[in-house]
Amino acid sequence: MSIRFFFDRLFRRFETKLQPLNEITVNRSALLHNYDSFLKLRSHQEIWPVLKSNAYGHGIAPVVSALKSRRFSYYIADSYLEALEIWRTHRHPVLLIGSLHPANFSKIDFSHLAFTVQDPLTLQAISAQRRPAKIHLKINTGMNRQGLEPSQLSDFLSLLQKYPHLALEGVFSHLADADNPADAYTPLQLRLFKKCLKQINDFGFKPKYVHLAATYGASKITDPDFNAVRLGLGLYGFGPLANLRPALTFTSSITKIGRLSARDYVGYNLTYQSSGSSNYAVLPIGYHEGLDRRLSNCGHVKFQNSFLPIIGRVCMNLSIASLGDLSANLFDPVTVISPNPEDKNSLTNIAQICQTIPYDILVHLHGSIHRQLVG
User: Fold this and answer.
1) Where in the chain are the domains?
2) Pick from 207, 244, 199: which is nearest to 227 by CA?
3) Are 272 and 44 in contact (CB under 8 A)?
4) Are residues 218 and 41 in contact, defined by beta-carbon separation less than 8 angstroms?
5) What is the CATH number of domain 28-236?
6) Cβ atoms 284, 320 nearer than 8 A
7) Of 316, 268, 272, 273, nearest to 297 (Cα)?
8) Which residues, at least 6 apart from 193, have a Cβ–Cβ distance to it below 8 Å?
9) Phi, psi of 69 (to 5 degrees)
10) Could you list the pLDDT tens digit for every one of the 375 residues in the chain?
11) Residue 337's beta-bridge partner residues?
């Protein structure tokens, strides 16, 4: 047993004995409902769960535990460290979609892995290990972020033919504007992608998996030649389908209750001044834990059935909410992010207040927050 593994197990055992002040719960039934909704939408395709960025802030371990009951070929992760985290819960194949430094291929386990390749250097680095490997070729069809340029495809395929121990198992690209209701760009990307697919087939390669759609593309890409969807945000309850259920609830605890008089200030830079007497609650969450600083003086948390305004600056590890005339007790629970889309502190409403997207809020929920699978 390695020293790192020993201390990791010790930490996890110790952590489970503590009563957390902050907790994220992940609803199993919501995750499975969302997964099954996309599976029903694309019954001829596999649905591959995307678990990058700590499963979009939900926590890799609880999400993998929930998905064990579903059958699919791959989890999708960005890094090898994320793959290792997945394997702590479920030894299942993982498709890595992020880049790896060429020096790292000699240090990692190829079993249960498929690699994204987008350049000849990576292809050569994998081949140099002289081990069988599965690769998924990513092609740039207009996102201009990752992917092999179509003009380089012929030379790349000629190089790949020299490495019979490397299997071109998949080919994919990424849509740039699929979440736009007025999207006119996806058909252009689709046309270019299919042209590249023909070229790949003409070279004699027959990839097992062809995947173009992620969450928002799932409702647009209906071509029977595509047989997998990379399901990210939709898995967690947000996307183009009307029946999706947010899976995450973030709760905190009241650690101090105080009383403000008229004209009292709250927090850094004196950005909030009380207009009258009222109660307030201090919460042990701040921008380190993932409570966005842009919620200062304009966000809400939920206490019982009331929405409490966040007053003053959100601090690094603390924030303050106005109780008004409400009474509370120390360590009473407070909902920071609600799974109810209608609540003022739903993820969608929080993102709108912060003028950002739900992804941005989710991935900044700190990994140290205790996470638990429920439901």
Assistant:
1) 28-236, 248-338+340-374
2) 207
3) no
4) yes
5) 3.20.20.10
6) no
7) 272
8) 139, 141, 173, 212
9) -80, -5
10) 456 555 566 556 655 678 999 999 999 999 999 999 999 999 999 999 999 999 999 999 999 999 999 999 999 999 999 999 999 999 999 999 999 999 999 999 999 999 999 999 999 999 999 999 999 999 999 999 999 999 999 999 999 999 999 999 999 999 999 999 999 999 999 999 999 999 999 999 999 999 999 999 999 998 889 999 999 999 999 999 999 999 999 999 999 999 999 999 999 999 999 999 999 999 999 999 999 999 999 999 999 999 999 999 999 999 999 999 999 999 999 999 999 999 999 999 999 999 999 999 999 999 999 999 999
11) 250
pTM for this entry: 0.93
Which position has the token pair 């106005």? 322
Domain 248-338+340-374 class in CATH: mainly beta
209 beta partners:
170
Secondary structure of the chain as H, E, C letters: CCHHHHHHHHHHHHHHCCCCCCEEEEEHHHHHHHHHHHHHHCCCCEEEEECHHHHHCCCHHHHHHHHCCCCCCCEEECCHHHHHHHHHHCCCCEEECCCCCHHHHHHCCCCCEEEEECCHHHHHHHHCCCCCEEEEEEECCCCCCCCECHHHHHHHHHHHCCCCCEEEEEEECCCCCCCCCCCCCHHHHHHHHHHHHHHHHHCCCCCCEEECCCCHHHHCCCCCCCCEEEECHHHHCCCCCCCCCCCEEEEEECCEEEEECCCCEECHHHCEECCCCEEEEEECCCCCCCCCHHHCCCCEEEECCEEEEEECCCCCCCEEEEEECCCCCCCCEEEEEECCCCCCCEHHHHHHHCCCCHHHHHCCCCCCCEEEEEC
